[in-house]
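Entry 14. Ran structure prediction on the chain below.
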Amino acid sequence: MKKFFLLFTFLLTFVVSAKPIHPYHVGSVEINYNAKTKTFEISAKFFLDDLENSLNAKYNKTLHFGEEKSKAGLDQALENYFAEYFKLKSNNKFLKINYLGFEEDKESVNVYLESEATEIPKKVETAVSLLYSFFDDQMNIVHIIVNGERKSSKLNYPDRYLYQIF
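Output, structure tokens:
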């Protein structure tokens, strides 16, 4: 009985102290062409802990979503991270991407970007390798929307390139 009690105590301590984890690593990126502004409006959504861990590992920092003192550091890290791991071409021309900011949800983070102005795209190409450097099972779902036509694809690590014709 004593052994059972010790084993039960050990298992209970392990279960209570273990961090909850999710069994998969997935993110989504929506690239929406706005005909009025002639820009692509981009939003990316990732699990908060995955993005936080990836940024901290990449930049050797200790940044935490939800902490006001980390906001400026997170903004800088996210701007640099997306500049490195997200590229966009329209009609065979690379577009400059501007980082706009981020919003936190309970378990996720939304990152907002916008491209420079471009004519209505016939061909959209993107390179998305977000979180690939941290998770070798990362899956990114990419939605490209032009004139209301939505085309979606799934990119599994190590696949990062995608193009769509409109």
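The mean pLDDT is 90. Will compare against last week's run tomorrow.
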